[in-house]
Amino acid sequence: MTPGWLGLVIGGLATAFLAYRLGRLGADRTARELEQVRYELARRLNELFSLQELSYLLSESLKVERIVTQVARYVTRFLDADGALVVLAGEDADRIRVSAAEGTLAPLADRILGRAEAGPLGQVIGREQLEVVEAAAGAPLLRVAEIPVQRVAVAPLRSHGVTVGALAAVNRSGDPFTAEALRLLSMVATHASVVLANARFFDLMRSGKEQWETTFDALADGIAVVDEAGRVRRANKSLADLVGRPLPSIIDMEFDGGLLGGARAPELAALLQLAGRGQETSAITLQGLRNRVLRIQAAPMRSAPATGWVAVLVEDVTEQKTLEAQLIQNERMVAVGQLVSGVAHELNNPLTSIAGLSEFLLEQGSGNERDREHLKVIQEQAERAGRIVRNLLTFARKGAGEYEEIDLNDVAQRTALLMQYELRLRDVQLESRLSPGLPTVMGDRFELQQVVLNLLTNAVHSVAQNPPTRERRVVLSTGIPDGDEGRVVLRVADTGPGIDKEHLPNLFTPFFTTKEPGEGTGLGLSISFGIVERHGGRLSAEPSDQGAQFVMELPVADRSTSKEVKPRRSSGRISAPAGAGAEAPKEPRSILLVDDDPAVQRTIRALFSRDGQVVSAPPTAGDAMRLLETSRYDLIIADARAAVTSGEMFADALLRMWPEHSRRTIFLTADVRPQTHEWLRSTGCRYFQKPFKVSELRSTIKRMMED
């Protein structure tokens, strides 16, 4: 009911009431009675106008706090009450919250009272009709929360059959509430209950709206409401951040093309059309702004103001797609690693023959100088192929890292060999400046080689972008920082375009890359950074006059606390300490060779048969075990993994049955896996990595015979 309409009602009621009473009086009524009617009319008009005033006050706001305060003030003013209060219904039926209080009850404002503490007020609140409680004659005054009162009048605040609270007026003394006062209290309660119900409903709607909007904007994925014309009617903050625009500027933009950037996508238009018609749709994936990959889904809005409206969900799946690509790449690398391992192991045996026989022929001094030069080339290339195979096997190795003393120069050289093809392909010059006598570091060879390979690969790709007039050069260097002998450094510098200053803070952030989509995952530098940190070092990018420069710092190995590890030699041979025992013959007279590769057999025979030594090479490892039962051999050269039975290798069977043979046994292996080398070291026998140098094999045999 609006205040203007209420004024018309008041005027009409006043006129009707006056006509009615005058008609009753007639001409025979006295002037006194007429005066009484006029007084009553004035009082009623005063009540009506006061109600109109209250209506104006209550219409000013829909805030519950302001409404209850105005109601309490009105009751105190127009009912001649000492005080008034308003309580609103809550979840706790045993406690009462005073929402507003005026007059003598003002101290109770915002207090929470128990039913017992509220006294008679607590007894009548919640009932469905107006009630008055008065103190009995001669009895102590009623008390409401320690405030003495003579009488309490309580009117329920009910709207649509629901009690929302109560309105109470109190008197400490004086005359009882008149019938007119109680009627006015009831009218005020009725009017206030409607306004309070509306205010509460408005608060509920506003709270729900705010909660929905907060949730809508808090979602990490972008959401848009698109009308039948394909324009955005509503969007959340995440979508605005995703497309890099202020939220207000998105409204009324075309979702297909204009909002997401680039040309219109037919699949996106089809998705919106199908969803607008209420048909089943499937998510699509598009390339969005700033090289982001977006997954888009759409669903019809059943309660839209017009048909064809859809809700669109936009997810940024760039990192997910990158991870998927990385997983696929990892699976490929695992498959390639297995293939490389198998091929490399098979290559080691023929490389052993090529390197061994070429070295043997060179030792014989036969042939002219030109033939000897050819043999040197064959030997050098065989050794080079062997180093490449070992590097491939080391790089393809997976599993837990194995920390040992590492020569960083050796890691750099091995990695540079792996890069030779890439360097030639991109016409890049690699310059190595490795500091001699560099202290060793404790680390995992595979992981450190991965870091160096990542840095070199990035540098090569960078300088490959140079124009023809600019040199394409990468410098790989090692050394000791000035004034810090406890650390070693490895630098990779290039003459490429360099690194933009704004990119420096994000260089080692996962998935950050300046390469084109599909050319890089943004994981290489972040993985390298983590590897160097695990080694107690630091990986950083330093300013350079031209191009880029990355520096890896590692602590020098602490020999007082590190475990003793034998350094690996460039030939791939690792020698274990000789076992103690009886003195062996100075010159071997008979040799047992256990290797099923004919080329290796031919090489060993050529090396020793010329000196008059007898080499026995049984067809299988089982045959070799039977020969050992009946014959004595001065030297045993065997493939450690040759199978005696389906479940036992020759090395295990030999040492189980004849452990004393460990003094005069040399094992050969084509496997570079750390667990294989650890197992061979545990046997106490000397062993060689294929392909091996003939001179080193002979020198080892000579020392064995002299022990």
Structural features:
Beta-Lactamase, 6-stranded antiparallel beta sheet, Heat Shock Protein 90, 5-stranded antiparallel beta sheet, single chain, 707 residues, 20% strand, alpha+beta
Summarize the structure.
By secondary structure, the protein is α+β, with helices and mostly antiparallel strands. It contains 21 helices and 27 strands.
Polypeptide structure, described:
This protein is α+β, with helices and mostly antiparallel strands and 707 residues long. Among the domains are: 1-60; 219-316, PAS domain (Beta-Lactamase, 2-Layer Sandwich); 408-566, 2-Layer Sandwich (Heat Shock Protein 90), CATH 3.30.565.10; 590-706, Response regulator (Rossmann fold, 3-Layer(aba) Sandwich). Helices cover 45% and strands 20% of the residues. The protein has 21 helices and 27 strands. The strands form 7 sheets. It has a 6-stranded antiparallel beta sheet with strand order 3-2-1-8-7-4. Strands 10-9-13-12-11 form a 5-stranded antiparallel beta sheet. The termini are far apart.
CATH C-level class of the domain at 408-566 is Alpha Beta
CATH fold-level topology of the domain at 408-566: Heat Shock Protein 90
- So, CATH architecture of the domain at 408-566? 2-Layer Sandwich
- The CATH homologous superfamily of the domain at 408-566 is called Histidine kinase-like ATPase, C-terminal domain
Q: What's the average pLDDT?
A: 76
Shape: elongated
Strand order of the main beta sheet, please? 3-2-1-8-7-4
Radius of gyration: 48 Å
Q: Tell me the strand percentage band.
A: 15-25%
